[in-house]
């Protein structure tokens, strides 16, 4: 574990710089200041606190929906193939 942590710590600045560049490309300096001000508010702090849970729940909903859609499409494909005389 110590080796892994050392490797991660050795590249943390690279990660920070890369993510900062992404934000700089997508937001102006003024917008970044407004975001910072928002995150310092009570609702901004709650947003930060809740975001991992919201992200996890959203991904679960998306995954479930994707599975349902793929199942529906699979059933429709089988039905269509049977209509065309394929024995599936």
Could you describe the 3D structure shown?
It is built from four helices and no strands. The protein is mainly α and 88 residues long. 0% of the residues are buried.
Strand content: under 5%
β-strand number: 0
Q: Which radius of gyration do the C-alpha atoms yield?
A: 23 Å
Structure annotation, total helices: 4
Percent in helix: over 70%
Structural class determined from secondary elements: mainly alpha
Give the helices and strands as they follow along the chain: HHHH
Q: Regions with pLDDT < 50 over 5+ consecutive residues?
A: none
Main beta-sheet strand count, sense and barrel state: none
Choose one word for the global shape: elongated
* Distance between the ends: 51 Å
Mean pLDDT: 94
């Amino acid at each position: 574990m110590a080796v892994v942590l050392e490797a991660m710590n050795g590249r943390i600045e690279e990660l920070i710089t890369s993510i900062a560049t992404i934000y700089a490309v997508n937001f102006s300096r003024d917008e970044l200041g407004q975001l910072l001000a928002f995150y310092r508010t009570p609702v901004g702090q709650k947003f930060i606190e809740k975001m991992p849970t919201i992200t996890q729940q959203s991904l679960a909903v998306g995954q479930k929906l994707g599975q349902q859609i793929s199942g529906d499409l699979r059933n429709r494909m089988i039905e269509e193939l049977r209509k065309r005389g394929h024995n599936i």
